[in-house]
Amino acid sequence: MNHLRFVKIRQIFPRPVIKDTRGRVLREMDRINFRERVKPGQRVAITAGSRGIKNITTILSALVEVVRAAKAEPFVVGAMGSHGGGTAQGQKEVLASLGITGETLGCQVLTAAEVVEIGETPRGVKAFCDVNAWNADGIIICNRIKPHTTFHGPVESGLMKMMAVGLGKVKGASLIHRVRPGEIASTLIDIGQVFIRSGKVLAGVGIVENSYDDTAIIEAAAPGELLEMEQRLLTEAYRLMPRLPVDRLDFLIVREIGKNISGTGMDTNVIGRTRMIGVPESSSPFIARIVVLDLTAASHGNATGIGLADITTRRLVDKMDHKITYLNCITSGNVQRAMLPIVMPDDRSAIEAALASLAAGEAVEHLQGALIKNTLELEYLWVTENLARELSQRTDIEVVGPPAPLVFREGNLVLEDDHEFVQGEGL
């Protein structure tokens, strides 16, 4: 293991980007003639979820501006299913951690655990809505559109899910997560149509990010066009999604997991694991061992996704809020994702355990592996020297550093920043 060396590489992804997010929101809402659907004096709820979305405060502030320009009264409503512990205070804290507060947006930010039953789908599935949003005169559904980490279909993580699960709170989330994976997308669409038919939905705003976590697309839609827009933008989200440079790895070291990175802590589309009973695992990508080292502060102790790993550290487990993590996974029905893997004292012992489980002695040098910050930031990463030699022939890969061993201080991996190793104890 002392001879295993890593090389820093850079992946080159497509990079469309919106530079003026506020201006784009204003133009999009004008394009769909938003003012024609709202009357002076009406109260309009704007949804805000628990995900870390680039430029979200700018986007929400622009929507607040649009509503005020129509002489209506805007407020932001927490729409995050069971996140934040399913409580009003927990939701408010999650939003505040994302910069979504009354002070930053210039309007009220309301959170609640209570919901109203607003109807049911043709198949008898009930639809629920946050009480504050339902008591408003209208709702603007705003969310990022991206591939989901549990199911796939014509809609995944986006506006339909924001209505069914986000505004549905614990009841809505629990209901959706009891649906078989193959039927989730159609159920989300059915519940979304209940919202749209109610007349409460005034507009939808879809956001797509590129592989660099930049805002790539912002598009607004009138209620009747919302579903078509989401389906089209989901195709773009798949095209722009960050990926690992290869489909097979012996091991992957993930420096951090967290709810602000993915709903499952690690994006299952990146790591190729779902850990759901009755759902076959993907054959590509395939990673034999996954090691996770830490939990982000923005997760507030929610370590959902820890069960996707094979080995972790005591540091991560000590940061885990069991109550919040278990509520999230029980609500989703995916209890396997809260199960603890092998727990090692520190980073070094966790990585060594993974390598030892795959090969012995000098055979470790033949393993192909990678080290990433998280599954959201995949532009820069480190790969084993043997893998770097293969990747160096590709036009979408740039080798940007010499081979170097992993280095540790007091057992923990130390990086000068996200792209450079520093001197320390070698692996």
From TrEMBL:
Entry protein name: LarA-like N-terminal domain-containing protein
Q: What broad taxonomic lineage does this protein's source fall under? A: Bacteria, Bacillati, Bacillota, Clostridia, Eubacteriales
